[in-house]
UniProtKB/TrEMBL annotation:
The keyword DNA-binding applies. Residues 1-38 form the Cas12f1-like TNB domain. InterPro entries: Cas12f1-like_TNB. Keywords: DNA-binding. GO terms for molecular function: DNA binding. It comes from Arachidicoccus soli. This is Cas12f1-like TNB domain-containing protein.
Length: 46
């Protein structure tokens, strides 16, 4: 139900939703170049 409401709001505001897998390394992926860091510590997430 949450995904349906989110999709509705995204469509309302002209945004896109990208659904990824549960175990995809999304926080380890660089937003600018797309490289993936193999090891990432909490102190690195500043």
């Amino acid at each position: 139900m949450f995904v349906d409401m989110l999709a509705y709001k995204a469509e309302w505001y002209g945004r896109n939703i990208i659904k990824i897998g549960r175990f995809d390394p999304s926080s380890k992926t660089c937003s600018s170049c797309g490289s993936i860091r193999k090891y990432l510590m909490l102190k690195d997430l500043e």
